[in-house]
Amino acid sequence: MTLLEKFLLSILFLLPLTQIINLFQQGALPLYILITIVVCICCYFFTLYLIKETMPLLLKAGIQGRDLHKPGTDPIPESIGIVSGPMYLGCVILLQIVYQIKLSEFNAGITSICFMVLLGFMDDVLNVRWRVKIYLSFVSILPLIVAYSGSTYVLIPKFVKIVFSTAHTAIDIGIFYKIFVTFFSVFCTNSINILAGVNGLEVGQSIVIGVAVLVLNLLRLNPNDASMDQEYARFSILLILPFLAVSFAVLKFNWCPAKVFVGDTYTYFSGMVLAVVAVIGHFPEMLALFFIPQILNFLFSLPQLLGFFPMSRHRLPKLNQKTGKLAGQKQHHNLINFWLRIVGPKTEKMLCIHILVFQAVCCVAAFGIRYLYREFL
Ligand code: UD1
Ligand code: MG
């Protein structure tokens, strides 16, 4: 790793770390976070070990792919999500046993994630048509939606209260809340999968969003608050820390030059974990803000996804073999090609760093929007 990459990675660690130290100083850091961190560090090293062991097995089974930006190289193992997914589930179930979590949503969330890992692996092995993937994503989120018994209220902005001169602070949108959450979860799982094609990008964006989710929930912790909100923040932290542990292990092998591809097993798994955490933690609107790059990429892609323009199997930038840089392609309507056409050709690693920095900027902006909304709107 270069100095710049190490610097950017350490910022990702420092953000939650400063909040953890802050909570320690206030005496507000519960013991469960420390135990969870220790379990997750073990999970990280175990995942690293298992990835190494699984790589030759995937190659032997023919589950492999060619790195399209490195012509002439041998195929490398694909679908390493088949290690990170089950490792994550094992770690979460272990924590659930330790903390005796009996919330039905928690179990339903685990079922949805499990379903999604299965679907992702099925896609990697069988190359399922994308319409079928969308239907199956709807089925995967159903266990959580059926079990969801939490609030379906949304806050009314201050200016709306003034305009309609109402004293209500929130409105119950009932079934529409569940419909929104269902569609949004399907969006999460598929949108990470299509902001892809550059080494480290799928897992990198998932980590940046995961860190933002962790910071958000650490900020929610308040020892003087006895409401259910604290439980939701606690569950979110328990669900996101193991996700970061397995994702960092995957990143170590997927960072440019990649030794493994994450496969759709990982992209679907990560999208579903983030959606489940947001539903159980009651912050889907904040997650939507963290997903701004994925929303932009989806909007750019929509004309091709809907068939208004022809779409090839891969919508990747073009490699200039002399310079080793990637250039944006006009016929591919997505964020990475659009970005390269603005900033000019970049190496694969630099392009990935650019998109990840943009992702981080969007997450910081999301916190800004939340603050402004609470203070003024
Ligand atoms: C999505 C994108 C597709 C993009 C692909 C890359 C849409 C609708 N689909 O398809 O345009 O090309 O992801 O993952 O936007 N690969 C690399 N380098 C990487 C990652 C992947 O060369 O860093 C190649 C490898 O050949 C690998 C293949 O992409 O085998 C994996 O593609 P897959 O994840 O199956 O593609 P989709 O998710 O269907
Ligand atoms: Mg994919």
From TrEMBL:
<dbReference type="InterPro" id="IPR000715">
    <property type="entry name" value="Glycosyl_transferase_4"/>
</dbReference>
<feature type="transmembrane region" description="Helical">
    <location>
        <begin position="203"/>
        <end position="220"/>
    </location>
</feature>
<dbReference type="GO" id="GO:0016757">
    <property type="term" value="F:glycosyltransferase activity"/>
</dbReference>
<feature type="transmembrane region" description="Helical">
    <location>
        <begin position="289"/>
        <end position="309"/>
    </location>
</feature>
<keyword id="KW-1133">Transmembrane helix</keyword>
<keyword id="KW-0808">Transferase</keyword>
<dbReference type="GO" id="GO:0005789">
    <property type="term" value="C:endoplasmic reticulum membrane"/>
</dbReference>
<dbReference type="GO" id="GO:0046872">
    <property type="term" value="F:metal ion binding"/>
</dbReference>
<dbReference type="Pfam" id="PF00953">
    <property type="entry name" value="Glycos_transf_4"/>
</dbReference>
<keyword id="KW-0812">Transmembrane</keyword>
<dbReference type="InterPro" id="IPR033895">
    <property type="entry name" value="GPT"/>
</dbReference>
<dbReference type="GO" id="GO:0006488">
    <property type="term" value="P:dolichol-linked oligosaccharide biosynthetic process"/>
</dbReference>
<keyword id="KW-0256">Endoplasmic reticulum</keyword>
<feature type="transmembrane region" description="Helical">
    <location>
        <begin position="7"/>
        <end position="25"/>
    </location>
</feature>
<comment type="pathway">
    <text>Protein modification; protein glycosylation.</text>
</comment>
<keyword id="KW-0460">Magnesium</keyword>
<feature type="transmembrane region" description="Helical">
    <location>
        <begin position="134"/>
        <end position="155"/>
    </location>
</feature>
<feature type="transmembrane region" description="Helical">
    <location>
        <begin position="175"/>
        <end position="196"/>
    </location>
</feature>
<keyword id="KW-0479">Metal-binding</keyword>
<feature type="transmembrane region" description="Helical">
    <location>
        <begin position="31"/>
        <end position="51"/>
    </location>
</feature>
<comment type="similarity">
    <text>Belongs to the glycosyltransferase 4 family.</text>
</comment>
<feature type="transmembrane region" description="Helical">
    <location>
        <begin position="265"/>
        <end position="283"/>
    </location>
</feature>
<feature type="transmembrane region" description="Helical">
    <location>
        <begin position="105"/>
        <end position="122"/>
    </location>
</feature>
<keyword id="KW-0328">Glycosyltransferase</keyword>
<keyword id="KW-0472">Membrane</keyword>
<protein>
    <recommendedName>
        <fullName>UDP-N-acetylglucosamine--dolichyl-phosphate N-acetylglucosaminephosphotransferase</fullName>
        <ecNumber>2.7.8.15</ecNumber>
    </recommendedName>
</protein>
<dbReference type="GO" id="GO:0003975">
    <property type="term" value="F:UDP-N-acetylglucosamine-dolichyl-phosphate N-acetylglucosaminephosphotransferase activity"/>
</dbReference>
<comment type="function">
    <text>UDP-N-acetylglucosamine--dolichyl-phosphate N-acetylglucosaminephosphotransferase that operates in the biosynthetic pathway of dolichol-linked oligosaccharides, the glycan precursors employed in protein asparagine (N)-glycosylation. The assembly of dolichol-linked oligosaccharides begins on the cytosolic side of the endoplasmic reticulum membrane and finishes in its lumen. The sequential addition of sugars to dolichol pyrophosphate produces dolichol-linked oligosaccharides containing fourteen sugars, including two GlcNAcs, nine mannoses and three glucoses.</text>
</comment>
<feature type="transmembrane region" description="Helical">
    <location>
        <begin position="232"/>
        <end position="253"/>
    </location>
</feature>
<feature type="transmembrane region" description="Helical">
    <location>
        <begin position="80"/>
        <end position="99"/>
    </location>
</feature>
<feature type="transmembrane region" description="Helical">
    <location>
        <begin position="351"/>
        <end position="373"/>
    </location>
</feature>
